[in-house]
Write a structure and sequence with these properties.
- The complex is a heterodimer of chains A (about 140) and B (about 500).
- Chain A is built from 3 helices and 8 strands; from the N terminus they run E-H-E-E-H-E-E-E-E-E-H.
- With about 140 residues, chain A is α+β, with helices and mostly antiparallel strands.
- Chain A folds into 2 domains: about 70 residues, Alpha-Beta Plaits (2-Layer Sandwich); about 55 residues, Alpha-Beta Plaits (2-Layer Sandwich).
- In chain A, the strands form 3 sheets. Chain A has a 4-stranded antiparallel beta sheet with strand order 2-3-1-4, covered by helices on one side. Chain A has a two-stranded antiparallel sheet with strand order 5-8.
- With about 500 residues, chain B is α+β, with helices and mostly antiparallel strands.
- Chain B has 3 domains: about 260 residues, no CATH class; about 80 residues, no CATH class; about 120 residues, CBS-domain.
- Chain B is about 25% helix and about 30% strand.
- In chain B, strands 3, 4, 7, 12, 18, 19, 20, 21 and 22 form a 9-stranded antiparallel beta sheet that branches. A 4-stranded antiparallel beta sheet of chain B has the order 6-5-10-11.
- In chain B, helix 2 crosses helix 3.
- The longest helix of chain B is centred in the last third of the chain and has 17 residues.
- The chains are: A alpha+beta (about 140), B alpha+beta (about 500).
Amino acid sequence: MGRILIRFSEEQVSEPIASQIIIEYKVPMAILSAHINNKGGEILVEVPDTMQEQVVEAFRKRGVTTMVPKLIEVDSEKCFSCGTCIALCPVEAIKTDKDHTVQFDKEKCLGSTCSICVDACPARAIKSVKANGNENRDKKS
Amino acid sequence: MSQDGKTRTIEEINQKIKKGDAQVLTAEEMKKLVESSSVEVAFKEVDVVTTGTFGAMCSSGALVNLGHSDPPIKIDRAWINDVEVCHPGAAVDLFIGATNMSEKHNYDYGGGHVISDLVAGKEVELRATGVGTDCYPRTSVKTTITKDDLNQFMLLNFRNCYQRYNCAVNSSDEVIYTYMSKLLPRLRNATYSGAGELNPLMNDPNYETIGLGTRIFLGGGQGYVIGEGTQHSPKSLNGTLMVKGDAKQMSPEFLQGASFTKYGTSMYVGLGIPIPMLNIGLAKKTAIRDSEILTDIVDYSAPRRDRPKFGQVSYRDLKSGSITINGKKVRVSSLSSLKMAKKVSSTLKEWIEEGTFTLTAPIERLPTNTVCRAMRQTEEIPFVVSVMHPAVTCTEDEDIRAIATRIVTKSVNHIVVIDEAGKLKGIVTSWDITRAMAEGKKALADIETHNVFTAKPDEPLEVASKRLAQHNISALPVIDIERKVLGIITSEDVAKLLGRRN
């Protein structure tokens, strides 16, 4: 599955853009997180890998900003495996292995759209890397 | 071992250590051995059990002596890497407190980080000012130093190794940031601290072998117990230790600066104590399991010393990752590191096996009957309940005109909207009524505010007063845990009382 961060402006937010794309492309779209109101906002969605590029293009054609969100970065040198972050994670992406070392599951992590663990880390080992809007375009050109 | 096989002495154990044939187990291994065989077998086979803990220990610090500058200075104030350090004694002795925060980086860097950086061999910047005296004429100094430049660099922690600690939750509607880390609203997470069955004091709860002069693992080096820690409460299983050690010999892996957002800085300290198996009673005590160690679940959203509790929980439950509170599953995570606690106990075991660490008998026992008392306060502070008065109320089916009349006859600015059970539904102000009149609105529903900021009766008035200012509002309905309206406090009440005190 591929993740896309979709950012709606104040003008776009009242349009049923996501619904239209879901119907037109018959794409199953799971909403992982949404921070949105009548002033605009962003949603993080998950679509099948094979359709990711198509969906990104479809949103861009309608003038919507899309990004491939970057994940949380964990500095394993700094992390001393206290585990403070574990119970905060809404998607259970953080666990400890057999020897109690804290492990991040990058597949599950919601990335910079969530960031709930970042300011709770006593070791300051977790960094939220903001999504890069040009990343997908660069890949294509 | 004595002839009857019932006791052994520290001297006997030390001789075995020197010969390289002392039998040492970590606390974790000892518990397994007792369970798979018996206390008798374990006592017979094992000479020493090593314990360990690694957690945030705020009452930690380091004493440094800088040596004299030329011309000399009697330091008045000093900063290391922009963290103000304490000048408690003579000219160039400083104390770096773990919780002092950087003036530039706040929560991200503090005294604990300074100590860790120095231990790691890093260069730090020292700035100091003095008043200038006949014998110490200099008034300021700025230089860079490493631990090698210091005459003494001594870790001096006055409260370490808490025997056990609370499990923290937050029942309020907002995220709170505490020394127990980030607590999500409505009991969405819980945090705890401590190594449970691996904690040194849990394995010798009567302080038979841990006392003044006991040699310990401290911060990756060797240190000593120099007394009971502050707030030492062994009777309630909340014992603490005061410890010291040469920080120049320590390791940054076991002494790490820590940041608690919107709370402060601290230091994680690795501390381990060897428990000599002097008698079978000690062997039995080191078999204690997490399931036998209970702690309170405490609601940190209450801004009071005695916070409400949600019952008790064992360290076994805490380490399982989730606990049950009021029938609801709550995910729980540890602030201290079990991985590092185990590393402390296994490193100490290696040292003893290698013969580089021998045991000491305490030269004086620690108190076993002290309790931590509350502060004596000569001035009581006011609480919400002391200024709260009955609220003028209405129900949602009432006419705006009737409410307007009530505002006039009762001479108030706020009407609290309640349901039949007396529970809070909303609030209406005289301003809302005026606006409704101007705009020709008739229904209460059109002007009522539903999202109401409230106060609890046992909150300090200062906390409620801050809430009024923060949201730029002039009254808070006072409600109980079921949202029943008990009364109201207004900014005038607060101003009257707090004003009178000044």
